[in-house]
Specification:
By secondary structure, the protein is an alpha/beta fold. 41% of the residues lie in helices and 21% in strands.
Length: 447
């Protein structure tokens, strides 16, 4: 019997009607063992963070109103699903009452620790999984029993060997007695049994980890779009579903803004050779994308992605070429301060790097100024053209430069793996650039 790991995002479980659709999809996998991971209902995680911030600011009335909104949405969904038994109502209220105690404590102290915030954030998945499991009438497994992590609260790192042991101990026996079980994405626990979270997008990561632990046959990521698109359809209306792509291409696209998939999801799947499909809950029989083991797709361009709020930092040092180890000193600064760099460009006297705007801070600039004159160019966007570029570089470059005619390019970089050509442009030009590139690569001309 095949084993499937099926992850449903927040929009997929965002209402009673959507939960019914989820149940229908899961039941259609008759003949397979299904591990169903769910995110919090759409908007709930943000509301939990807002609630905690309100309590920290001593706006207890607002925090309690937000908590009441969370309780109301889940109680209403339970009634609409006809599962509002005393047991389910009691379990919902138990989670809500624990949150209430937490916000009173935060209001009293005027602060909250990352550990407390993880416990609060996990409530969204605990509530949604309760509704989904009760409606499907299948076992509910607390993911914290299986997903063991370190105590880096807010962005915890999984301990795969322990996860594999826990899956054998808790998860596999349940699958032997029931073909369907529901659990939570996003959350885990550390060695002290404190609740942890895997960071935003962590539900996808959970799916990859459990699939690897179970040696599953496939991971299905269910979202609100029909797979990975050739570009953001809000920018390029003619964008279409990419039917098949490689793990490496998927990682590049996810890293550069294709938000339907968390980059970390495919790492455990890659290790085990497990295919990943991206499907739409609202078009379950429509088109979908398959991320498959193996080499690149062979197409010069699979898709175009964009990430905004990027800055370029340039360090000018006229004697740079005479200084042994200049680049080592430069990247040591980024490493010590925990700053990830995207693209790098060098000349005789200048090094330019790009990074996300939120990573810029005064201590970084102060350290860089010890190496040379520093300038910062903000309001930039990075556009990634992903495909089999290495074997078709002249063709791709020619098409790219024709499409970008009239649009200034600040920085251009070819990825070392040969499947990513990145361009940095001004944010004001980014959407026009994507439309022109999409037309050139997918519609037979530029515009």
């Amino acid at each position: 019997m095949r084993t499937l790991v099926m992850k449903f995002g927040g929009t997929s479980v965002g209402s009673a009607a959507h939960i019914r659709e989820v149940a229908s999809i899961v039941r259609s996998r008759d003949g397979s063992r299904c591990v169903v991971l769910v995110s919090a209902m759409a908007g709930i995680t943000n509301t939990l963070f807002e609630m905690a911030e309100a309590a920290r600011s001593h706006d207890l009335d607002r925090a309690i109103r937000l908590l009441g909104k969370i309780e109301k949405s889940h109680l209403e969904a339970s009634h609409e699903l006809d599962i509002a038994t005393p047991d389910i109502i009691g379990k919902i209220r138990e989670i809500i009452e624990n949150l209430q105690r937490r916000i009173h404590g935060i209001d009293l102290l005027g602060e909250f620790s990352p550990r407390v915030m993880d416990e609060i954030a996990a409530a969204g998945e605990r509530l949604s999984s309760l509704l989904v499991s009760e409606y499907i009438k299948c076992p509910l497994l607390d993911a914290r029993k299986v997903i063991r992590t370190d105590n880096h609260f807010g962005n915890a790192h999984p301990k795969l060997p322990v996860i594999k042991e826990n899956a054998a101990l808790y998860l596999k026996p349940l699958l032997e007695s029931s073909d369907i079980l529901v659990t939570q994405g996003y959350i885990g626990s550390d060695d002290a049994d404190d609740t942890t979270t895997l960071g935003r997008g962590g539900s996808d990561y959970s799916a990859g980890l459990l699939a690897l632990a179970l040696q599953a046959d496939e991971i299905e990521i269910w979202t609100d779009v029909e797979g990975i698109m050739t570009a953001d359809p809000r920018i390029a209306p003619s964008a279409r579903t990419v039917e098949i792509l490689s793990y490496e291409e998927a990682v590049e696209l996810a890293s550069y803004g294709a938000k339907v998939l968390h980059p970390a999801t495919v790492r455990p799947a890659l290790e085990a050779g497990i295919p990943v499909t991206i499907r739409s809950t609202f078009a379950p029989y429509g088109k979908f994308s398959t991320i498959s083991p193996g080499e690149s797709s062979g197409r010069p361009c699979v898709a175009i992605a964009m990430r905004q709020q990027v800055v370029i930092i340039s360090i000018i040092q006229e004697s740079m070429t005479d200084q042994a180890g200049f680049l080592a000193k430069l990247f040591d600064i980024f490493g010590r301060l925990g700053v990830s760099v995207d693209l790098v460009s060098t000349s005789e006297i200048c090094v330019s790097v790009s990074l996300d705007k939120h990573l810029i801070f005064q201590d970084l600039l102060k350290n860089l100024e010890e190496l040379g004159q520093v300038s910062v160019a903000d309001n930039r966007a990075v556009i990634a053209i992903v495909g089999d570029l290495l074997r078709k570089t002249p063709e791709v470059l020619r098409t790219t430069f024709v499409a970008m005619d009239g649009i200034p390019i600040d920085l251009i970089s070819m990825g070392a793996n040969g499947i990513n050509l990145s361009l940095i442009v001004q944010e004001a030009d980014a959407e026009r650039a994507i439309r022109s590139l999409h037309a050139a690569f997918f519609e037979g001309g530029s515009r």
